[in-house]
Amino acid sequence: MNNKKKELIIESTTLWDFPTQNYGNKPHGNNKYNGVTPAFIIWNLLQRYTKEGDLVVDPMCGSGTTIDVAKELNREVIGYDLNIVRPDVIKSDARKIPLENNSVDFVFIDSPYSDNIKYSDDSKCIGKISCEKIEFFDELEKVAKEIHRILKPKKVISWLIADQWIKRKFTPTGFLLYQRLEKYFETVDLISVTRHNQTSNTGIWHYRARKFNFYLRGFKYLFIMKKVK
Ligand SMILES: C[S@@+](CC[C@H](N)C(=O)[O-])C[C@H]1O[C@@H](n2cnc3c(N)ncnc32)[C@H](O)[C@@H]1O
């Protein structure tokens, strides 16, 4: 479906397809930010797993999509990142979040998927490490452990990630991250989110995918997990 005016509705299946980054008349995050998250995803998660007044945290909030959606829904929100593009984002490494243990009601995170996007010159950016290296998952596991520390028991974390296929090599980034997350969290559900607007979504790339017998990435994983202990 490519309906440009997708209705803002709570999704009822595990397949989510949002043709545009934003909904409504006001921006949520900045759709020019490389790797910006579709605002619909965060809206849906906040509807299901939070209530008014809850504290929502995004440890890698980039252009602040989580901040804008959460504020509009009357949630408290704190967004961190190493790359500061707006004044309400706090500079902090996601592996060391300046919050108390068991103090947060919900965490959303859309981390780097590999070293495919340059977010900043900060050497601590995890997006400088290829997902072909174990180190990438070791660093994301440190982030997962930190999220587990700050989340209140029984509260939910949701993590968006995609696989990689470059230079004829497939890396199951989603599965490899999931194995790390399972050490800390119990799975609530797994959503598949249709990808739109990535740079390879052009005629020439679709042609190459058919001619050279490979697939373009068509979806991302959205892991929904819970802190149980
Ligand atoms: C996919 S983008 C997030 C996009 C964001 N959700 C939005 O809608 O604009 C990933 C972000 O992770 C940040 N990042 C990478 N390594 C980080 C780290 N160690 N600590 C905090 N942020 C980090 C990058 O700067 C980038 O903004």
Could you please describe the fold and organization of this structure?
Helix 1 (39-49) packs across helix 2 and helix 3 (134-150) packs across helix 4. The protein contains 5 helices and 10 strands. The strands form 2 sheets. The chain has an 8-stranded mixed beta sheet, sandwiched between helices. The chain has helices at 39-49, 65-72, 134-150, 173-181, 203-211, and strands at 15-16, 55-58, 76-81, 89-91, 104-110, 151-161, 164-166, 169-171, 186-194, 219-226. The protein binds S-adenosylmethionine. S-adenosylmethionine binds next to strand 3. Residues 29, 33, 35-37, 59-63, 65, 80-83, 93-95, 110-112, 119-120, 124-127 line the site of S-adenosylmethionine.
